[in-house]
Amino acid sequence: MKILSWNVLRLTGAAAEDVAGLVERHRPDLLLLQEATRDISALPSLVGGTYFQEPLEGRIYGLAMWSPHALPRPRALRLPVSQVPGRVPPRLAQIAMVGGIDFANVHLSHGQFLNRWQLFRIASVLSGPSAIIGDYNALGPIPLPGFKDLGPRQPTHSPANILSFRLDRCMARGLRCTQRRVLARGPSDHHPISLELHAVPEHLITELRPLHSNVVRWVAAVQEKPIRARIRERWMRQERHSRRHSA
Question: Taking burial as the number of CB atoms within 10 A of a residue's CB, which of 38, 117, 157, 168 is the most buried?
């Protein structure tokens, strides 16, 4: 299955005609878009297919999925949010099962702890062969139990053409990737990424299910208490331990 993902850069980036050109050149089975505005919803009138958009609360843009085939209506998963006042509205993951694979289209937060927490939340609701694809806004490696980084290793984002970062990624479970590419950037500040994904045999997926359970338990534990309370309790335990040993 051929998957494309592209952050089109709201308003000043790619228009529906640019996205249609990408589709015609690369013929994906599934296209995932981030920062898609209402104008991008004209895509089916240009290339046909099925299109669903999930707007971000309080913003003019959101997530979108397109396929040349019939698509089940994706569900929206609300993700953990920052407690800092004035930050962006809650992020969502757009999730749909296509060809027996759970796909999560994401545009994660910029905070490096928060975007990894969001990934754990998404992983906890996916089952079987799964892929989390999109703009991660993440720097450095991402440990996610049971999932592998199958995306391209080249930079995908070049703000102001000064620095380049690998922000657009694919973490997958129960899948193998036979081809991964970073495509020409076009009018956005992100390059599209292209992936050829295939499901692995079922007996290999069953070996990963204990890891999935660990992810679910970790997310539940994180949601039970505020992070500051957990850090404080850990610090107090360490402090008591040092006092006993120094006495």
Answer: 168
